[in-house]
Design goal:
By secondary structure, the protein is α+β, with helices and mostly antiparallel strands. Helix content is about 30%, strand content about 25%.
Length: about 120
């Protein structure tokens, strides 16, 4: 599925928007995606994925962190993160995403608002 959000910005912003374009949010109508840039320049992204029961819904950050770990990296390798989401969506990921990343040591966290 492609939600058709225009892809723009730097490579990290583009990865976050592309992840939001791939997400599966038919119930909440709250598309979102996150991209993590590591100290060596590697980028991992994750897309929001929900099901009818909202359990287990997969936040975009969880998907990106899973890929990071599965590829042998540590959370301390994250140097920058971007969340892409709609500003007035029914389900906003910003607070949980920013809080989790800060707890993991990432302090450069940005948000791209989708239209």
């Amino acid at each position: 599925q492609n939600h058709g959000f225009p892809v723009s910005g730097d490579a990290l912003s583009q990865a976050a928007i592309e992840a939001a374009n791939r997400c599966h949010a038919p119930y909440s109508h709250s598309p979102s995606g996150v991209a993590l840039e590591l100290k060596d320049g590697t980028i991992f992204s994750g897309s929001y994925a929900e099901n009818a029961a909202f359990n287990p819904t997969l936040p975009p950050l969880q998907g990106a962190l899973n890929l990071l770990s599965l590829n042998g990296y540590d959370y301390q390798d994250i140097q920058r993160a971007i969340l892409a989401e709609i500003a007035d969506a029914p389900l906003i990921q910003w607070d949980a995403t920013a809080a989790t990343l800060k707890a993991l040591g990432c302090t450069t966290i940005d948000r791209v608002l989708l239209a």
